[in-house]
Amino acid sequence: MKLLLTSAGISNPSIHNALVELLGKPIAQANALFIPTAIYGITGGAEIAQKVICGTLGDPFCQLGWKSLGILELTALPSIKQELWLNMLQQTDALLVGGGDCQYLTYWMQQSGVADLLPSLLNKIVYVGLSAGSMIMTQFGTTYGNHTLPPETPKSLNLVDFAIHPHLDYEGFPNNTMANIQKLAATLPMPSYAIDDQTAIKVVDNIIEVISEGNWRLFEGS
After folding, report:
1. pLDDT digit string (tens) for 29-54?
2. Number of domains in the chain
3. Is 213 helix (H, G, I), strand (E, B) or coil?
4. According to a count of CB atoms within 10 Å of the terminal CB, is the N or C end of the chain lower?
5. Is residue 27 helix, strand or coil?
6. If you write DSSP's letter for every residue of 2-24 in order, what string do you get?
């Protein structure tokens, strides 16, 4: 398993170098697929998705100089024959999973069948998460509630045994202070990483490494 779980994308040289190391080749020689699905669970999602793809919003993610970049929309996959998209997914080098609503993203990961494929895929490809795209791989997720899913719908896939709280001290999320995250982390049974937008968590098999040029903190579970 090779994961790069970011708060805001490839925001600094340290995170960029970690991505290249995981890929085992330069980004210019790597193919990527972008999953925008989570973005549609937040206000203005369609416009935000376009900006993330074009690289006009936030830190570099899709526009990193990939050899090729495709879009994999999870909500479309249940109505498409699997042979039309499975081979493309299996042959990509990096799966870029954007931010937005964790619950909405988790639901469509499961409904599309991609969640079932991830354990085998992650032996071959690099999973690069951004915000909610990172959180769903952990044991804790959140929701904006801008959808009609039942409240009991899972908010994460539980593939790693910790939680991530992204956007630490980001001015656009005034509640994301270290003090508030510490209070939240104290209610969770698993360890929690509070990470700012200059920080990412790299996971290779069972080895966890914090990649940071910013601020972060690990809280033990309750």
Report:
1. 999 999 999 999 999 999 999 999 99
2. 1
3. coil
4. C
5. helix
6. EEEEESSSS-SHHHHHHHHHHHT
Q: d(Cα 199, Cα 10) in Å, to the nearest integer?
A: 9
Q: Looking at the whole model, is its pTM more than 0.70?
A: yes
Q: Which domain holds residue 206?
A: 2-219
Q: How far is CA 43 from CA 29, 102, 145, 146, 207, in A?
A: 35, 14, 10, 8, 36
pLDDT tens digits, residue range 196-222? 999 999 999 989 999 999 999 999 977
Report the distance separating Cα 158 and Cα 88, nearest Å. 25
**Which residue do the tokens 């539980």 mark?**
158
Q: What is the CATH number of the domain that holds 22?
A: 3.40.50.880
Residue 130 CA to residue 4 CA, distance in Å, equals: 9
Contacts of 25 (CB under 8 A, 6+ apart): 93
